[in-house]
TrEMBL record, chain A:
Residues in 4Fe-4S ferredoxin-type domain copies: 354-384, 394-423
Species the sequence originates in: Crenobacter caeni
Family: Belongs to the 4Fe4S bacterial-type ferredoxin family. RnfC subfamily.
Record-given protein name: Ion-translocating oxidoreductase complex subunit C
Sequence intervals crossing the membrane: none
Top-level class of the enzyme under EC nomenclature: translocase
TrEMBL record, chain B:
Name of the gene this protein is made from: rnfD
Subunit comment: The complex is composed of six subunits: RnfA, RnfB, RnfC, RnfD, RnfE and RnfG.
Transmembrane domains' residue ranges: 20-53, 89-109, 121-140, 195-219, 224-243, 249-271, 283-301
Family: Belongs to the NqrB/RnfD family.
Protein name: Ion-translocating oxidoreductase complex subunit D
EC numbers on record: 7.-.-.-
């Protein structure tokens, strides 16, 4: 018997699984029209690659994966594309998203299937690209592209998640009972690809039939089926990893850092179908339950409108809404015309008799029941107070972002508080503040540059006029005058810095280099903690001005009046081989400017941090300042990551199993930056407290 | 439609409060048996005062009255206070104390869930500071007054002709011990008085056991956590035992301190009040132990015979601080720290 570990807290909500787990998986009739979202996974939405009017076959690629963190989308049946555009989707936001609508032709004619029979010989990269193009994503709820999670080798433990802990849902249960063999095959493939030392399938002990079926299918394989105690939320990836291995994967770290990777049973089933049978992901098992005449599980073509499924299953008149997902973490469906996506594991037709509304909320009485139930070992009441008071800094200090939003705290709360709503609100506010801050920084940089530009044009014009007045010789062509002006500007720039290389014939290039060197120097200077904040700001500004001057010079050299400043505000336009030198110069100048902007941001962050306590004591603040600078750097890194996008991400190490609101790298970096900033503020506050004898 | 989770345990704040009220019933019954119907009079006076005051304050605060009256929290404050006060105390004493508890101990802080101090203890502390004479006269266990006479005494301060004040009231055992112990009178000798019963006071020790019974029910129902009562009783028992070992002449032993006065009421019904106590397990242990130590210190070295109220209030002050420094590490925090260190 394998030793199992317990995670903290957990609850035993009523299961309601018997509503739907008693009957085999069935296929609903083909709907007249499918509305297939192009974003059925975490990451960049797939790019539609079919035109309206085009005929498609079942399994045909209709939207290609866009970048590394993405997955392809395929036609779930044969028919004709009738629309490519915004439509309702099953998403908590209720916003419209790009969808490809297909009018079905009833033939259900397959395209030629393309399995990957030699996957064992193929290198990991090829297999992963194949899975991405087959649209294989995590079907446990996070819909993280599976290919990314397979980029590891020498894994200690491959964990297969068949816990299915949420009430009502039974799609994994039925899948395990009926298609255990194929799941096991998928597990073996995933195990081989990741070089797993051991492979465990964790199933809650309230599904004995599934355990029996899997155990039979695993006979003679190294895969072990482990029955785990029924306790919500044991199906959370981190919780299941804890149960089976005893390892605790903290927030912000990847399970692969601990030699573990976790896949849902449905995911590995679809992986097997893709590799062995050459079938892309075009359907999934969905539990249809609640106020329906025929509850059960259906193998639903992706894009099938929810109302089609409900009509087929027979909705009771009591039903007053549809919940997507389980009752603990699901969300209300905004529009029933939305098509089913890869994340939709359950549709609950709800009514007040089935899920009675909560009694009115009372104030928190600090009873601590939530803390006893929290699987993330948080103090939920504390997060609640902070979120309610909009104290987002303290909320983050209390590990707000460790919350997995499982709803256990809210379930046990005697005051009947919708606790998770408060946490979601706080997280959203923090993310929004981050975005606003970034936008404000950009706007400020733009504004300051504009001020400088106006000033510069004025002085240049004056100089030009002065030069013309001094040498009224008719020999001076306009070109020469311009060159003179450039040289004058160069000389002025050189004058300001002693260490600048003497002007060469290629003044333009030299000036750019000088500006870049200066910017680099400024950056180094910024990192020195001893630098007083006020001069730092000035320095940064000067760096920005100098960089901009270099750029202006380059622009001049281009001999064109067209301003490129607007173009440069937009992230790097693709360089064309046309006016090579000048354009490159312009780009280099822009880079210099970016460096300067970064330096400036650091100093503004510093000064901002300083500004909070009006009479902050000078000496003890060094730490806070350093922290603030670090925060700014992290933020800059985040922005860089964002700009570089998926291309640079390739270099990164093993992909994450992505917790629920899973986040791409740039976003995570942004969050880390926010946390660093919070730390800075805290340090500063403490520094201030240390100085101030009064409480 | 509201948002997830759509399932919730049906437990409400009222469920919790009424379970605590139910857990007080054995102690109330025992008290009535020992001290007479005066106890019920005190309870009734306190209940009515609490509900009326609470309703008035809720209206003044423009908060819906009905849901907060029904939550049972005001009633609980009233009962706890009534059980702490002298059973034969004059009627306005309990009325004033209860009103003070509700107004100043609870509602002015924002009502349910927002009071930093235990309201019942606020009321008790006010009474013992403002009306020490009335608070000192405790009824004699199984005293000579009939039910009707008790009513007359509580409401009109009229005694039957054949009785004097001394015949119906006495000091509490804690008070008696404090005032009689002397170089020529050891604690053991003092406690030989029939006033002391077997452990902590004739009659009142049975009430203490009834509190334990109610507390065990609350533990079984998971309404309270074991940490605070165990820590409080442990600390009080330990310090009493150690002092007794050091000098048995002056210091009575652990059993007396555990069974006497309001120890058990405090351990199972006062320090377990979630609103004014810390929330983490470690915090509750610290809080309980602090109350236990303070109870001993104030009883033995302080100016008041019993100390539960002041000890609890003092530790209530420390609650936010304790909460701040006892926050348990989150899931995997140790791993994160290790990783950061290795970087």
């Amino acid at each position: 018997m394998r030793q199992l570990y317990r995670f903290h807290g957990g609850i035993h909500p009523p299961e309601f699984k018997e509503l739907s787990n008693g009957t085999p998986i069935v296929s609903p009739p083909l709907p007249a029209r499918l509305v297939v979202p192009v974003s059925q996974h975490l990451g960049a939405p797939a790019k539609p690659c079919v035109a309206v009017g085009e005929a498609v076959l079942k399994g045909q690629l209709i939207a290609c994966a866009d970048g590394r963190v993405s997955a392809a989308v395929h036609a779930p049946t044969s028919g004709r594309v009738v629309a490519v555009g915004e439509a309702d989707v099953a998403h908590p936001s209720g916003l419209l998203q790009t969808c490809i609508s297909i009018e079905t032709d009833g033939l259900d004619a397959w395209i030629e299937k393309t399995p990957l029979p030699n996957w064992q010989e193929a290198d990991n990269e090829t297999v992963r690209a194949f899975l991405r193009d087959m649209g294989v994503v995590g079907q446990g709820g996070a819909v993280f592209p599976t290919a990314l999670k397979l980029g590891v080798s020498h894994l200690d433990t491959l964990i297969v998640n068949g816990a299915e802990c949420e009430p009502f849902i039974s799609c994994d249960d039925r899948l395990m009972r009926e298609r255990a063999q194929e799941i096991v095959e998928g597990v073996r493939i995933a195990g081989t690809l990741t070089g797993a030392r051991e492979m465990l399938i964790g199933v809650e002990d309230n599904k004995p039939e599934a355990i029996a079926a899997l155990t039979a299918a695993c006979a003679g394989t190294p895969i072990e089926v482990v029955s785990v105690p029924t306790l919500y939320p044991s199906g959370g990836a981190k919780q299941l990893i804890r149960i089976l291995t005893g390892k605790e994967v903290p927030h912000g770290m990847r399970s692969t850092d601990f030699g573990v990777q976790c896949f849902n049973v449905g995911t590995l089933y679809s992986l097997k179908r893709a590799i062995v049978d050459g079938e892309p992901v075009i359907s999934r098992i969905v539990t249809l339950t609640g106020e329906l005449e025929r509850c059960g599980n259906a193998e639903v073509l992706l894009g099938t409108p929810v109302e089609h499924l409900l009509a087929w299953a027979g909705v009771n008149t009591r039903c007053d809404g549809v919940i997507v997902g389980g009752p603990m973490m699901g969300f209300p469906l905004e529009s029933r015309v939305a098509g089913v996506g890869k994340a939709v594991n359950c549709l609950i037709a709800r009514s007040d008799t089935l899920l009675p509304p909560r009694p009115p909320a009372m104030p928190c009485i600090r009873c601590g029941a939530c803390a006893d139930a929290c699987p993330a070992q948080l103090q939920p009441m504390e997060l609640y107070w902070h979120a309610k008071a909009r104290e987002f800094g303290p909320a983050q200090e209390a590990n707000l972002f460790d919350c997995i939003e499982c709803g256990a705290c809210s379930y046990v709360c005697p005051s009947q508080l919708p606790l998770v709503d408060f946490y979601k609100f706080a997280k959203d506010e923090i993310w929004a503040a981050e975005r606003d801050k970034k936008a404000a920084d950009r706007a400020r940089a733009r504004h300051e540059f504009r001020q400088f530009r106006i000033e510069r044009d004025k002085t240049e014009k004056a100089e030009r006029l002065a030069a013309r007045a001094a040498t009224p010789a008719p020999a001076a062509t306009p070109d020469a005058a311009k060159a003179d002006a450039i040289r004058a500007a160069m000389a002025k720039a050189a004058e300001r810095k002693a260490d600048v290389a003497p002007p060469t014939e290629d003044a333009k290039r030299a000036a750019i280099k000088a500006a870049m060197a200066r910017a680099a120097a400024k950056k180094a200077e910024q990192q020195d903690a001893g630098t007083p904040p006020k001069p730092a700001l000035d320095d940064a500004k000067r760096a920005a001005i100098e960089a901009a001057m270099a750029r202006a010079a380059a622009k001049k050299a281009e001999q064109q009046g067209t301003a490129t400043s607007e173009a440069e505000a937009v992230p790097a336009p693709a360089p064309k081989p046309a006016i090579d030198d000048t354009k490159r110069a312009a780009i280099e100048a822009a880079m210099a400017r970016a460096a300067a902007k970064k330096a400036e941001q650091q100093s503004t962050a510093t000064s901002e941090a300083e500004a909070v306590p009006a009479s902050a004591p000078k000496p003890a603040i060094d730490d806070a300042k350093r922290a603030a600078i670090e925060a700014a750097m992290a933020r800059a890194a985040a922005r860089k990551a964002e700009q570089q996008g998926a291309a640079a991400a390739e270099a990164e190490a093993a992909p994450a199993p992505a917790p629920k609101p899973a986040i791409d790298d740039a976003k995570r970096a942004a969050i880390e930056a926010a946390m660093a900033r919070a730390a800075a503020k805290k340090a500063e506050r403490e520094a201030q407290k240390g100085q101030d004898p009064q409480p | 439609m509201m948002y997830a989770p759509y399932l919730a345990r049906p437990t409400t704040v009222s469920t919790v409060m009424f379970k605590v009220l139910a857990a007080l019933l054995p102690a109330i019954a025992t008290s009535v048996w020992v001290f007479g119907v005066g106890v019920l009079v005190q309870l009734a006076l306190a209940s009515v005062t609490a509900l009326v005051t609470e309703a008035l304050m809720l209206r003044a605060r423009a908060v819906p009255v009905a849901p907060f009256l029904k939550d049972g929290s005001a009633l609980l404050t009233a009962w706890l206070l009534a059980l702490s006060m002298p059973p034969l105390g004059v009627w306005w004493l309990i009325v004033v104390a209860t009103a003070f508890a509700i107004v100043f101990g609870k509602q002015l802080y924002g009502g349910l869930g927002n009071n930093p101090f235990n309201p019942a203890m606020v009321g008790f502390a006010m009474a013992i500071v403002a009306f020490p004479a009335q608070m000192a006269a405790w009824g004699i266990p199984h005293g000579p007054l009939s039910a009707l006479d008790q009513l007359g005494w509580i409401f009109a301060r009229e005694l039957p002709a054949h009785l004097t004040l001394d015949a119906i009231s006495s000091a509490t055992p804690l008070d008696y011990l404090k005032t009689h112990i002397a170089p020529d009178m050891s604690a053991t000798q003092v406690m030989a008085s029939p006033l002391f019963g077997h452990f902590g006071g004739a009659g009142s020790e049975w009430v203490a056991f009834a509190y334990v019974a109610g507390g065990l029910y609350l533990l079984q129902q998971k309404v309270i956590a074991w940490h605070t009562p165990v820590a409080m009783l442990g600390a009080l028992g330990l310090i009493a035992a150690l002092m007794h070992l050091a000098d048995p002449w002056y210091y009575s032993g652990a059993p007396f301190h555990l069974a006497a006065g309001a120890t058990m009421l405090a351990a199972f019904f006062i320090v377990t009040d979630p609103v004014s106590a810390p929330v983490s397990a470690r915090g509750r242990l610290i809080f309980g132990a602090g109350v236990g130590v303070l109870v001993y210190v104030i009883r033995v070295f302080g100016g008041y015979p019993d100390a539960a109220a002041f000890s609890v209030l003092l530790m209530n002050i420390a609650t936010p601080l304790i909460d701040r420094y006892t926050r348990p590490p989150s899931f995997g925090a140790a791993n994160r720290k290790r990783k950061e260190k290795s970087r």
